[in-house]
Amino acid sequence: MSDYSPGRPSATSLGDYARQSVQPGGWLRKEDLHACVRDPVMDTMNFLNEITVRYPAAISFAPGRPYDGFFDTEQIFTYIRCYLEHLAANGNSAAQIRDAMFQYGPTAGRIRQLIAASLRQDENIDVPPESIVVTVGCQEAMVLALRAIVSGREDVVLVSSPCYVGITGAARLLDIALTAVEEREDGFRCADLEDAVRAELARGRRPRAFYVVPDHSNPSGTTMSLGARHQLLELAGRHHLLLLEDSPYRLVSPGPHLPTLKSLDRQGAVLLLGSFSKTVFPGARVGFAVADQVVADHAGRTGLLADELAKIKSMVTVNTSPLSQAAVAGMLLASGGRIAECNAKTAAYYGNAMRSTINQLDQRFPADRRTALGVRWNEPNGGFFLTVRVPFRADNAALARSAEEFGVIWTPMYYFYPDGGGDYSIRLSISYLTQEDIEEGIARLTRFIEAEVHAAATIQ
Amino acid sequence: MSDYSPGRPSATSLGDYARQSVQPGGWLRKEDLHACVRDPVMDTMNFLNEITVRYPAAISFAPGRPYDGFFDTEQIFTYIRCYLEHLAANGNSAAQIRDAMFQYGPTAGRIRQLIAASLRQDENIDVPPESIVVTVGCQEAMVLALRAIVSGREDVVLVSSPCYVGITGAARLLDIALTAVEEREDGFRCADLEDAVRAELARGRRPRAFYVVPDHSNPSGTTMSLGARHQLLELAGRHHLLLLEDSPYRLVSPGPHLPTLKSLDRQGAVLLLGSFSKTVFPGARVGFAVADQVVADHAGRTGLLADELAKIKSMVTVNTSPLSQAAVAGMLLASGGRIAECNAKTAAYYGNAMRSTINQLDQRFPADRRTALGVRWNEPNGGFFLTVRVPFRADNAALARSAEEFGVIWTPMYYFYPDGGGDYSIRLSISYLTQEDIEEGIARLTRFIEAEVHAAATIQ
C-alpha cells in the first residue's frame, strides 16, 4: 500500500527518525512503562513471528488463524445489506437506519436479540438479550469480565493451564493475579481446582473466577468430560466462583458436542465469553459476553452483571462498531441464526485436517517406535490444536533448528503456562493447512524429532 | 428489531428472569465489583439519559453526537469498495484482498500510511507510519496511552479540568490517579500546571503526563492560545511530562486553526490521540494514537512507543476491525487525504449553529440584563460546546426542573470536574440541533434561568 500523494517529504526512514528524536538519556525508559509490555509472552510471540518470516518456505503448524477458503469478500456486502433490509422490514425509516450505522449506538450493542436467538438455537442457552454485551472480539469480553469481578489485590483468578494467551494478557493489563491449575495429561481435574481454591483461601486471597475452554482447548486440544462439567458447576456453586467459559471452536468442530457449561448452569455461575471470529470472520472483530448474574447493591437494588460490563465497556471502546455488528447480524439472519449449520462445511474441513494430522503421526510413529522414542500426542475430536509430547526440550532454540534445518514450524507449549511448565511439548495447529502440507509437514516434523533424539543420545 | 424465529420460548421477562437466578444473599454484591462501576459519573450520565427519555419533547443541548444529515448509508459501501479497489490497484491479488478483510490483520492497523499522509496534509504533522497505532475509537487510544506510561502507584496523570469523561473513565478502569488542573475562566494557564506538577513531586509522586484538548475543548469550549502552546511544550520538556493531545473537533470547525501541539513538538513530548468519529463517522469506531517517542531498554535497544502501545492493544482488542479501517481508508482515499476539505460543509454547519446559539444568548440577555442576573458565557469559534455560567446551583435537580417545566435539557458542568467544581455552570452542545431548535431552545433556557433566579430571590 503506498501513499496517494507525495505531499511533503516524509520522515526519511524510521532509523533516522528515531535518532533525531532521541533525547539525552532517552525520553522514555522501558522500565518506566507498565510491566505488561515486558511480559515475556510478548517476546516469545515476536520470536515465533520472526521465525515465520525468516523461513517462508517452512510448513507452519503455528498460526491459529481460521481457514478462509470458503469466504468471499463480497459476502461482507451481502451480510451488511441483509441487516439493513432487516432493519427496514422491521419498520425503521431511512433516517433511523442511517442513524443505526452512522452514530455511536448503544454501549451494550445493537444485535443482542439476534445473538440471544442464535444461542437458543445452536447451544440450548436461554438468556434474555439484556444479559448480552456485544464486544470488540472475545478479547474485550475477557477484559470486561476480569475488570468487573476483580476489585482488590486480594482477589485472584484461576486459569486452567496451559491456557490461552488472551486471558493472560488481559490479566497483565489490569494487574490481576492469575493462578494456574495445571491440566493432567488426560485433561482438567476438578479436584486440582478445589485444591488450588483452598490454597488461595489459606493464603488470605479471594478466588473470584476460573477461566476455562471446555471444548477443544487452545492450546492443548483437550475437551472436558460431561462428568467434569457437572462437578465443576457444583464446585463453583460451593465456592462462589464465577466460571469464565470460552468456547470459540465448538461450532466449527464436527459434532456431536457435549453441552456447554452455560447450558447446564442453573445457578448463574457461568459467564460465557463468546466469539464470532471462527464462525463468521475474525476481521469483523465481534464477540460478546453473556452475564446474566444478578448484582445487588447495598440498598438491595438489583441489576444484571451485563449492565456493569457495559459500563466498563464505555471506558474501553465506547461501543462495538455498528458496521461490524451489521456484518455479523447479516450472517445470523441469512442462516436463520443457525451458526452450526452454516459452518458445517468449515467444521468438516477442520475435522478432516485434524484426522489427517493424527493419521500421519500414527503412520510415522508406529506404536513401538513411539514408545522407544518417548513421543506421544492427544487425539482431539475437534478444534484447531493438538499437543505432541517430545523427549527433548521444545524451546525457541529447538524451534529455530526445526525451521532452519527441517522446514517445519510449531509452537512451544511452554508459551502457554503462566506458572512455568510445558517444556517438553509442542502445539500443532491444523486450521490453516492443506492435506498436502499436513502430509509433508508431519514427515518433516518426524525427521526433526528423530534428529533431536539422536543428537541427545550422541551427547549422552 | 425482533427475533427471526420463535424457537424455544425465551426467558419470559427480565424481571422474572432476575428473580429466578437470585441466590440466597445474592450471587454478586456490587461492592465486590471493581470500583470503576461505582464511579458517580456513570450514575450522572444515566440520570441525563433518563431525563432525555422521560421528556422527549424537550429540546436537548446535551448530546455531543455529530450531525448526520450530510451522511448517506450508501457511503459506507462506496468507501469500502474504494479501499478494495485501492488494494487491487496496488497489486494485491483477490486472495490477498480477501485475507485483508477476513483475517485478524496486524495489531497496529492496516491503514497507517494513509493516516500518516492525511496528518501531513491536514495538520502539518510529519510522522512515520510506524509511529501510528489504529485503535477502536479514540477511547481505546486513551486506554493504551495511560496503560503504557503509568507503571506504579506513585505515578500520576494530570488533566486539564473540566475534562472529557473518556479520560476519567480510562483512568478509573486502570486504577490510575488523576490530578485536575483547573482552567481559569479564560482557559488553561501553564503556571497552574507547573504548580500542580511541583505539588505532586513534593508529595513524592511522579507526574507522567498531562491530558488536554487544546482546541474547542469538551466540555468548556475553550481554545489554548499559541503562546500557551509554546509554554506548555517548554514545560513538558523541562519536567519530562508527556502531553496527551486530544483534538477531535479541529477539522470539523471553521478555520483558521492554531497549530496542534504535535506539529510544534520538536522533542517528542506529544502523544497525539486521534479520532475519526467526527470527521468520518462515529459508527466506524476508528481512532489512532501517534506515539513516535523513542523507548530505550536497559541494554540500549530502542523502539518506538507505538510498538509498546500495539503490545497493549493485543491485550485489549487484538486489532481494529479491518472492515471499519476499510471504511475510513476509503473516505481518506476518496478525499485525497484532505479531511478538512472534505468536512468543509460540516464545519460550516457547526460554525453556524455555534454563532446562532451565541447570537440568541446575546439577544435574550442584553449586556445590562446579563450583569444584573450574573449570567455569562464563552464564545468558542468552533467545536460542539460552550459554557454558560448561571447564578444558581446547576445540579440534577435543576436539570429535572428545566426539562419538566421549561422543556429544555443541558448538561451540568460539575459532571466534568474530577476533583469537584463547576456547580454554577452548564454545558450547551450545538452539534445536533437545527436553527429553529436553537432559537426555541435558547428562549426556553432563558425562561428557565430567569425563573431560577426569581425563585432564589423569593426565598431570600
Describe what this molecule looks like in 3D.
Chain A has 460 residues and is α/β, with parallel strands linked by helices. Chain A is built from 17 helices and 16 strands. Chain A folds into 2 domains: 38-69 and 344-459, Aspartate Aminotransferase, domain 1; 74-341, Aspartate Aminotransferase, domain 2. In chain A, the strands form 4 sheets. Chain A has a 7-stranded mixed beta sheet with strand order 3-9-8-7-6-4-5, sandwiched between helices. In chain A, helix 6 (137-149) crosses helix 11 (305-316), helix 14 packs parallel to helix 17 and helix 16 crosses helix 17 (435-459). Chains A and B meet through helix 1, strand 1, helix 3, helix 4 and helix 5 of A and helix 1, strand 1, helix 3, helix 4 and helix 5 of B. Strand 10 of chain A pairs parallel with strand 1 (28-29) of chain B, so a sheet runs across the interface.
Question: What's this entry about, in short?
Answer:
Two copies of one chain form a homodimer. Chain A has 460 residues and is of the alpha/beta class.
Q: Strand content of the residues of chain A, in percent?
A: 5-15%
Strand order of the largest sheet of chain A: 3-9-8-7-6-4-5
The counted number of beta strands of chain A is 16
Stretches with pLDDT under 50, minimum 5 residues of chain A: 1-26
Q: What is the CATH architecture descriptor of the largest domain in chain A?
A: 3-Layer(aba) Sandwich
Structural class of chain A: alpha/beta
The main pleated sheet of chain A reads as: 7 strands, mixed
Biggest interface: chains and residue counts? Answer: A-B, 123 and 123 residues
The value of Rg of chain A in angstroms is 24 Å
Q: Oligomeric state of the chains?
A: homodimer
Number of helices of chain A: 17
Return the domain count of chain A: 2
CATH superfamily of the largest domain in chain A: Type I PLP-dependent aspartate aminotransferase-like (Major domain)
Helix content of chain A: 40-55%
Quote the average pLDDT of chain A. Answer: 91
Distance between the termini of chain A: 53 Å
Enter the CATH topology name of the largest domain in chain A: Aspartate Aminotransferase, domain 2
**Text of the CATH class of the largest domain in chain A:** Alpha Beta
Shape by Cα distribution of chain A: globular
